[in-house]
Amino acid sequence: MAAKYDFREAPNPQERDGSGILYPKLVSKGTVSWKQMVKEVADNTSFDEGTVVGVMHEVERLALWHMSDGFRVQVGSMCYAEPTVELTDSDRKLFDESEIHAQSVRFGKVNLQPAKRFRPQGKLERADKMRKFGHSSTRFTETERYDLLSAYLEEHGVISRTDYSRLTGLLRSSAQRELNAWIAEGRLACSGSAPHRVYHLPKRG
User: Fold this and answer.
1) What phi and psi, each to the nearest 5 degrees, are found at residue 173?
2) Distance from CA of residue 26 to its chain's centroid?
3) What is the pLDDT of residues 4-26, one digit of tens each?
4) What is the rounded average pLDDT of the residues 72-94?
5) Which residue of 80, 97, 106, 171 has the smallest Cβ count within 10 Å?
6) pLDDT (tens digit per residue) in 92-137
7) Is the pTM of this model over 0.90?
8) pLDDT for residue 196
């Protein structure tokens, strides 16, 4: 048993001839369902499936309870869960703190930060031709596009909207909407003003 990987191409900001940089990316075999995970835990331990489900429900409940009180929560040795907040009206722009009311802000998505030591261990193999990545944006989910962007920013620091379009295959308007949405969610930040605006990962406090 081995995981498969292939290479994707990212635009090279130092080259103007369109040449890119290759980087490795895991080829997904699909999703292992929670039901399957519960069965496998029960099959490999003395716990029955009901106990496994019950414990997980309690972990989820307590994690949400502590995050609702403003805490960052460690989930086993896997990851840390951290709550975010957002404006109730995502299209609204605030320029004065006096405009902010209790009803203006709500809890947003939960950010999950993997623990440094939580990573797969095992054999890797190059994917065969039938499982290679396509280059059409329709083959990339939003999660895959964000993974592409994150990998690029970890390597290069910043990216322009034009280079993001080249990276994902998204048209200009779609690429801009997606970048703006990730800024609103706190998953991305930007510097400068159009047409020289660049995007980068937010600073971690």
Assistant:
1) -65, -40
2) 15
3) 888 876 666 565 444 567 778 88
4) 86
5) 97
6) 666 666 666 667 788 999 999 999 899 998 899 888 764 455 544 5
7) no
8) 83
**For the chain, what is the total number of helices (H) and then of strands (E)?**
5, 8
C-alpha span between 106 and 15 (Å, rounded): 43
Q: Is 5 strand, coil or helix?
A: strand
Supply angle C-alpha 86, 105, 181, rounded to 5.
20
> Cβ neighbours of residue 149 under 8 Å, at least 6 residues apart?
159, 164, 167, 168, 188
Which one, of 148, 123, 150, lies nearest residue 133 by Cα? 148
- Return d(Cα 107, Cα 101) in angstroms, integer: 14
| Contact in structure between 115 and 77 (CB atoms under 8 Å) | yes
Q: Is 58 left (phi over 0), alpha (psi -120 to 50) or beta?
A: alpha
